[in-house]
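Q: Can someone sanity-check these two? First one:
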Amino acid sequence: MKKKKLLIRFAGYYKPHKTLFIIDMICAFTISVFNLVYPYITKEIINNYVPNKLVTMLLGAAGFLLGFYVIKAGLNYFLHCWGHIVGVRIQSDMRRELFTHLQKLPFSYFDDNKTGVIMSRMTNDLFQVSELAHHGPEDVFLSLITLIGAFIMLAIINVYLTLIVFVFIPFFALVIVLVRNHMKKVYADARAAQAEVNADIESAISGMRVSRAYTASEHELTKFDVGNDRFVESRNRQFKLLGKFHATMTFFMDFLYFAVLLGGGLFFYFNIIDVGEFTAFVLYISTLITPIRTLVTIYDQIQEGATGFKRFCDIMDVPPEKEDENAVTPDNIVGEIVFDNVTFGYKNGDDENDAKVISDFSLTIPAGKTVALVGPSGGGKTTLCHLIPRFYEINSGVITLDGYDIRTLRRSFLRKNIGIVQQDVFLFNGTIRENIAYGDFDAADEQIIEAAKRANIHEYIMTLPDGYDTNVGERGVKLSGGQKQRVAIARAFLKNPKILILDEATSALDNATEMLIQSALENLSDGRTTLVVAHRLSTIKNADEIIVITGSGVEERGTHDELIAHGGTYKELYEYQFKIL
């Protein structure tokens, strides 16, 4: 039933292109019929037109065949041109659907799956699906029509000789059944190995600077060789099995010729068939073997395409982020955030045995205030930042925004009102203008420039030869860390959110750059509810409230001066950073 559902699901992708697909099938059917006419005309020429010297009929039959061949050439053009176009369009539809679905998947999916593996499914797998979409139905349909037609024509010539030949067909079917399941597993292993190689390559190229800096090229090569050897090994198993399959099928087809020549020769010897019928029979066997050979040839392609489609469906069947069907979009928010007994673990929200990053956590962040989170690593500070925009779902408890449970708010509304600037800034491979415009794609150039000015990056941009049209490179590699941070801040200015999350936004910068960016961040935070995660305590001295978070929850809270006077964990951290003994 599962295979049937997959087949029905695959067939559904032909619906938008059904007109071209139907024409393609009509062309395939017509070509099959033409292939069946040629041996019959040959029989008539040998048995009738030539012995009886019917030149007019001979020339007519020759002209008839020539016309068929011209039409057949046009049909083959359509079949190979527009048939492939149908396959490419289906591939495009699937890739668009997959990309759209990926945009809706929970962040936990990307935590558990490598980028290179996902890319392999979007490129290599869908290419194989495209080839299957074109060649699969077309070749199978053409082959079946030719097989049935050839069988009928052979039976008309001599039914007994036909039965002698076709008695071997069940053995052919048995071989396919025996090999099929084993090949399916081998092809799946090969596809998975290829995806892992792609993932290793993607990771190695992305981290090229790190591996060069640590002279780790040999290590990367060794790691790559492990995956590459696994890919070669899986391909070896695949091709050995495919070689056995093709060798068996080739022997079967050769044996058909042998059976026809032997049986047909004996039938001709005993005058059961004449020379024309014998010739036609041999030609029809050639016609019969052609679709068999086609089926054998595309079997590898069918397996590749079916495996690719199964892997495509594996992603499409991952549930997207859940949206409350009654989710609301308030007219306005002021930005009060409340954590009420929140518990969260990254593994599985329903499994009590999972290690909890946050347990029974409660905290109120007043609207328009700047609240800083400090404390040792592993206390859950960054996790809290991820929970507010619902990048992950909490296990228990409630997070509210202006009294609304955030699970009852539309994600698009929630995230539209939250701006995030992180330590590891991600810039897309495009221009500076495009990267700033992520804050508001409808913004005019004047607004983009104003956002850049407020982020203290405009003057630098104007020194570049192409200004705002300068390409930043992959992940912003052409910009320094401070420049990337300021582009990210400009992006947040343009978004103009009610809530701002600054997650270690300056920790990777030098002191001079930090001071420059800190000024922009303070400007950005003005009048917004701001949550700051920082290890550099000098950057949060002016926060309205500083909260010290440890593994057991909130340990201390207050202003900088209050916490220093209190003499607890915050004072120890502060004195350690500034080496006050």
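And here is the second, same format, sequence then tokens:
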Amino acid sequence: MRNKRKVRGTFRLYLQWPLFLSGLLIVLTAIVGAVSLKAGIIVSVFTLVYIGIALWLYFSRKRGMLEGLISFASAYGKNSQVLMDEMLIPYGITDKSGHFLWVNREFQAILDEDKSGLKNITALFPEVTKEMLATGGQMVSIHSAFGERRFRVDLKEVDLELFAGSGEEEQIKSGLAAESSSVTAVYLIDETQTIKYKQQINDQKMVAGLIYLDNYDEALESVEEVRRSLLTALIDRKITKYIGSLEGIVKKLEKDKYFFAIKQQYMTKMQEEHFSILEDVKTVNIGNDMAVTLSIGIGMNGETYGQNYDYARASIDMALGRGGDQAVVKDADKILYYGGKAQQMEKTTRVKARVKAHALRELMENKDRLLIMGHRLADIDSFGAAVGIYRIAVSMNKRAHIVLNEVTSSVRPMMDRFVESGEYPEDMFLKGPEAAGLVDAGTMLVVVDVNRPSITDEPSLLRLVKTIVVLDHHRTSSEIIDNAVLSYVEPYASSACEMVAEVVQYIADGIKVRPPEADAMYAGIVIDTQNFTNQTGVRTFEAAAFLRRSGADITRVRKLFREDMKDYQAKAEAVRAAEVYMDAFAISTCPAEGIESPTIVGAQAANELLEIRGIKASIVLTDYNGTVYFSARSIDEVNVQVMMEKLGGGGHRTIAGAQMKDVTVEEAKTRLKEVIQEMMSEGQVS
């Protein structure tokens, strides 16, 4: 109505302008008459004629002009209604509840397809809610489906006055409540063909992949020499047949490495089957004692073919870093994991350890100071590995410091031996901020027993130090320290202390490990292997033997690990209160009140629960400082690393953990059970 009054006022003013000009002519006549009487009389005659014509036009032709304008507006409104009604784009008007007040023919045709006869947009398109109808004048777009067609639903709230004078005004008003002053305009854009074409284009994209045989040499050695070529041929045939069934191409790069390319449309099939080639290749048996396993790395949705190949390279490195026997798919910024059921096989050769040790020595020779850091709430494996790197640095006449922000109850007895002995400098152990103040161009950072930046003891050091080395035995995840100049991640190793013990032997001649240092590293191996019963290989015992020769004392280590009475009672309570879920999973909560390091006690309780017959995996939750900590353990039937990754954590196949902030224990336990159900339904539990 406000717009109507504005238009009428403008039109009236336009008709009155001749009368306003008449006043100017009268003034002009008076001035001319004052100059010349004769001229004034002549001008006054013309002025009177002008005023008479202006009055005649205003009073006699005003009605005719208004009628002409109204006729034009009416015809324009009717034409607009016809155009809107016959517009090829479905268009309609709804009230605030979503009920249709008016629709054009195209929209009516869509409504007629709905056999239920519903006339509400929220019923036709469930993605549209009543709150979305009040857009405040802004355009809101929703993608939805109706029948077999896909639509983009554009919504815009408009003032009812905009429909004034149109043919559908009365129809709209009749359907509105008296107090309603706005409606919502609805446009439907059919995207069915567009989405179809986009999908076709997406399906034709090239996916690059790499296949590596994890244990090629070991498998060949386990079979007679005359049959080795047959084993290789059978593996080649399995891989070629699998990729061929996907209409792809495969090329053998080396004796144990393959490159393949397929169309992206076949990725869904591979993922739904969880990459069946992973299990199929294990069936190849011609007398070999060891089943062949392989790793797959796939890159897709890169901007170029080259980028897809780079994604595949990164994926295969991650698959190998996680222990092999699995597929890793890097879909642009998203990473997906499949497989990883088989128990990883230990690499008996130390070639990689020797190469990494030499590379570490070259980096250390060019630096003046070493900072050594483990993970937050360091355990004895992290501490022992840090001590081993400290010994290497000191032997090479480098200044070294171990970054340790919070000392747990399990580490404190071992740390006190160094602090109280008087044989080590006072700055051997530093807090994170103190270490950050020492960083300069000649500083090198060695990260041990962790490869995820978010859970390191002092994440800020990763940004301050340019030269970073990572030594870890945990499987890698999508979150890694990506600016490391040297990364030695060996998931086959039992512990970080085992890896460091090997590096000590190869990095330089004449390094003498002192008894307290040997005790710390030996203790790390004992704890992570649960007294040499979990993930223990030949190299584990060789590392332990080296440390024993260096002065590690088993009795002394055992005394250091004796538990506090409160810790023992908390562990016993966690075992007593355990719940057996789905007849295979032991789930419990560890008390944290009055316990110095409840997360350590929770991990010990998880180890104890695993000793119960019929338990495939044990998970203990600990609520500590506003965070719920998960400690997960298994023997060989459940990949707890995959389980914990679904909760934002990670670790080993048989030892893993996770953390959840701002949740209660019950909420965390509910989420854990959902993950277990998901893994069971996907067949990820043996």
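A (reply): Looked at the second one. The first strand starts at residue 91 and ends at 94. The mean pLDDT is 84.
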